[in-house]
Each structure stands twice: as structure tokens, then as C-alpha cells.
Design brief:
Blueprint: H1 19-33, H2 37-53, H3 58-70, H4 74-87, H5 92-106, H6 112-129, H7 134-145, H8 153-165, H9 170-182, H10 186-198, H11 203-215, H12 233-259
């Protein structure tokens, strides 16, 4: 059993929320809970209203940047993030949202190399603020992978470190496993996948991890491995069930129309 005296305890500080952040907090809660395109539009209306009332609050502007990004307004997200950073250069979420928006834009850029180099700048700045933040490490690896470029050894180490820093992120663990398997580090890949597959509440990530473990069963250490495409039967059956459920009311209406007396 771990003894309390051997656990390091960092400095704890408490601060009062600004008026703007007090107003923005309910909006942020809705945003953090997860939004689809329709919900993100409603959240954005409220975020813009608060930002208009508190245009000099860096926290409010960073939250606005997140709402703009969720709604697909990439340029507006970058502008709001830049405004937040100009007021408070230590506002971490502003760098995150700017980085997200720039990475999304980079995917469609004519000059991908230049675009991803620019997209890394906010994450590099974030890394200077918090050396152990996983997002800069993840996006450094992505800046190679999304261009179809073989990740450098430094990039692979970055993804490994991110997975260590965020063990709760099962998707990240699966990606780290795939990275290792592709270069023949089969044992390392299995080490990442095993706890994910064993999670009884892991959902699709657990199923994916188990499928990959099954495929890796006969893989040889030191031999690069390529995953085989697999259909997620649970997801496929759920999709079929939804499709049938959506068609049934329409079929009933068509039947009623056909049986209606003239």
C-alpha cells in the first residue's frame, strides 16, 4: 500500500473566477460535455454573447475559440485564440484551440509541409508552458502521420510519452500500439493493447484492441506488421437496426395512404 508521505503534493492555489468566466462557465460545461453540429451552433450563440460583454477576458476568449472551433469556424477560432493569447500568453486552452484549427486547415492545404509546420507552433508554445502536456506530443507525431511521412524516432518517442502521460486515453493507447506494430515492436504493441482489451467498460476501443491482439497473435517480433481491415459487427448491426427503425414509420405512412378510400 502506498504511504501518503511518499506521494509528492504540488502547490495548491485557489482563485476567484472573473465575472466573465462566471458567465462563460455554463457555456463551457455544455461544450466540454460534447456537442454535435446543431448543439455547437447553440453553444456558439451563448459564447459570443458572453465574449461581447467581456472582450478583455482571456479565459472568455479562449472558451469562445473552442466554441468557434466546435462549430467549424476555423478562422474565427484562430482569431479568438490569438486575442486570448495577446491578453494572457499563459492561457493554455487558447493554444490548444488554435492548434486544433490550424491542424484542420493543414489537412486541405496545398503546401502540407508548410501548413503542418505552422500548425505545430501553438503546440510548441504550449509545450514550453507545460512540458508534460500530452497534446503537443500527440500532434508532433500527427504532423508526420497525416502527411504520409514516416515518423522520426523523436516523433515516435513523443507518442509513447503522450500515452504514458494519458493512460486513460484508450484511443491513444491503440494508436501507440499500431505505431509499434508497424515497425515490428510487437511486444510493445501487445503491452499497450492488453489493458484496453481487458477493460469491461471499454466499448468500441476495447473491441478494437481485442481484434488487433488477435491479429498480432502470430506476428513475429522485429517484422513490420500491417493491420487487416475488420468490420465492427456491433457497429454495423446497430447501423442496420437504426436504418430499419427509420424506414418503418415511412412504410406505415405509405401503407395508410394506399388503404385510404378515395
Amino acid at each position: 500500500m502506498l504511504q501518503p508521505e511518499i506521494l509528492p503534493i504540488g502547490e495548491i492555489s485557489v482563485r476567484r473566477l472573473s465575472e466573465g468566466m462566471s458567465e462563460m462557465l455554463p457555456v463551457m460545461i455544455r461544450s466540454k460535455r460534447g456537442v454535435d453540429r446543431e448543439a455547437s451552433a447553440a453553444v456558439l450563440v451563448d459564447a459570443r454573447a458572453v465574449a461581447a460583454a467581456y472582450p478583455r477576458d482571456a479565459g472568455v476568449l479562449a472558451a469562445l475559440a473552442e466554441a468557434e472551433y466546435d462549430a467549424g469556424n476555423l478562422d474565427a477560432a484562430i482569431a479568438a485564440a490569438d486575442a486570448a493569447i495577446a491578453i494572457d500568453p499563459a492561457r493554455k486552452n487558447a493554444y490548444v484551440q488554435k492548434g486544433y484549427a490550424l491542424f484542420t486547415q493543414a489537412a486541405d492545404a496545398e503546401d502540407e509541409t508548410a501548413a503542418y509546420k505552422e500548425a505545430m507552433k501553438p503546440f510548441t508554445a504550449l509545450n514550453r508552458l507545460e512540458n508534460d502536456h500530452p497534446l503537443p506530443l500527440i500532434h508532433y507525431y500527427r504532423s508526420f502521420a497525416e502527411r504520409g511521412v514516416e515518423p522520426s524516432e523523436t516523433a515516435r518517442h513523443a507518442l509513447d510519452r503522450a500515452a504514458q502521460l494519458a493512460p486513460f486515453d484508450h484511443g491513444l493507447a491503440v494508436n501507440a500500439a499500431l505505431m509499434h506494430a508497424k515497425i515490428g515492436n510487437i511486444a510493445a504493441a501487445r503491452q499497450y493493447l492488453t489493458p484496453v482489451a481487458a477493460n469491461p467498460h471499454g466499448g468500441s476501443a476495447a473491441r478494437q484492441a481485442q481484434v488487433l491482439l488477435d491479429q498480432l497473435e502470430n506476428a513475429e517480433e522485429g517484422t513490420p506488421w500491417r493491420r487487416r481491415p475488420v468490420v465492427d459487427l456491433t457497429r454495423a448491426l446497430s447501423s442496420i437496426a437504426r436504418s430499419v427503425a427509420e424506414k418503418e414509420p415511412q412504410q406505415a405512412e405509405d401503407g395508410d395512404e394506399a388503404n385510404r378510400p378515395e
